[in-house]
Amino acid sequence: MTIAKRGLILGATALAVGTVTVTGAGIHLSQSKAFFQESPKELVDEVWQLINRNYVDGTFNQVDWEAVRTEYLGRSYSNQEEAYVAIREMLEKLEDPYTRFMDPQEFRNMQIDTSGELTGVGIQISQDEETKEIVVVAPIEDTPAFEAGIRSKDVILAIDGESTEGMELNDAVNKIRGPVGSEVTLSIRRGEDRIEVPITRALIEIHPVRYSTQPGPEGLVGYIRLTQFSANAASEMSEAIEDLEKQGVTGYILDLRSNPGGLLYASIDIARMWLSNGIIVSTVNRQGVVDEETANNRSLTNKPLVVLVDGGSASASEILSGALQDNDRAVLVGTRTFGKGLVQSVRSLADGSGVAVTVAKYLTPSGRDINKYGIDPDVQVELSEEQRETLATDRELIGTSQDPQFAEALSILTVEIQEARGGSNVTSAIGNE
Question: Nearest-CA neighbor of 339 among 321, 314, 364, 362?
Fold first, then answer.
């Protein structure tokens, strides 16, 4: 089965809200739907076949996948719900939190209008592979969760008083979702503290790029904050760079902190705006086939660049930051990134449900596999708990001199600009041109 590149997603999480492009894999005729409703066992087999053909690991994480088929097709299913339970059990055997089944309602929730509007609280969550705790990867800026003070690495202990212990990730997502104007209360563990956070759900219009100019010792600096790799991220990034170039900025700070990822093609498109040549990312499927994405000599600027990253920078953020780091195009500042180096394809099934399948792993241009480790910044800048609290309380301070990581990035960028002006052969400042 062919997997369209623009159907691949790099979200680090199940999406409490999110943006994906769905690769059609089911037959959407009403007759086919009726057939699957009458024969739920066929749906179980369809999911098994998808995994069998496409899963990234040919050993299926040391699971006898043929025996799994025999086991689950040997059962009787009286309705779709029983089939759904069986499919989830079957996928759990892979011990891969990113390969997951979605019933029709969950699948509809996952499909986001291309306008960038969505309903929810605005967080992306993951399930810790060892503890099984539900963990916040990052809140999306300008959403109810962000306004309520939810932070990356918060552990969700309960949703409206119901403990998340033993709860499946999709179940947590569905409980957090709800109608616009309704309220959900998340019980959060942050360090040693337990915090109750009420959040009012809303219709959210996401603009993933915001930018401004900042005064610097060597002239105006362009500051761009990218909050997620949604369908409109590349177009908004292009507009931002072109506008800042017209304003005559001397260099750039690209802020990927708390950016949980998104669409694979968006990260590649954006990388090409900063890189004139070089490899951006390699994806490797289970046959070992390497698909390289490269720059295409269409960069929008070659001015010095510093990138801000942290533990909430995941997936597509890591592809972009890894490409810029390995090609000596940018200096990375902050803390180690999340560490998600797997690619999923989201497939629709014949009855309106869907499944996300891990189909490949990705490597940075130098061949690094960053899954479960992340990317170390070139310059480590940790924030104290007090500094985190200050920035969380007053988000207007982010990207200012009162933001310690930004201040360090500006200091480094100033040196990069000076060296570039002095004609030094500093590839991190001027790219590979």
Answer: 314
Q: Which of these is catalytic: 326, 345, 361, 428? A: 326
- The CATH number of residue 312's host domain is 3.90.226.10
How many whole angstroms separate alpha carbon 212 and alpha carbon 14?
31
Considering the candidates 315, 317, 321, 353, report the single residue annotated as catalytic: 315
Is 315 considered catalytic here? Answer: yes
Strand residues in 251-329 grouped as ranges (E): 251-255, 279-284, 290-294, 305-309
pLDDT classification of 111: cutoffs 50, 70, 90: low
Q: What's the rounded Cα separation, in Å, for the pair 292 and 300?
A: 21
Catalytic site residue from 299, 340, 345, 351? 340
Question: 141: which 2 tokens?
Answer: 């800026």
The pLDDT of residue 174: 85
Domain finish residue from 205, 221, 242: 205
What is the per-residue pLDDT across 54-84, written as a single tens digit (0 to 9) for each? 999 999 999 999 999 999 999 999 999 999 9
The dihedral over CA atoms of 58, 323, 229, 199, expressed in degrees to the nearest 10, equals: 90
Structurally, the chain folds into a number of domains equal to: 2
Within 193-335, strands assigned E span 193-200, 202-205, 209-216, 219-226, 251-255, 279-284, 290-294, 305-309, 331-334
Residue 313: active-site member:
no
In angstroms, rounded to a whole number, what is the distance separating the alpha carbons of residues 426 and 272? 20
The torsion defined by the Cα of 304, 310, 314 and 319, in degrees rounded to 10, comes to 20
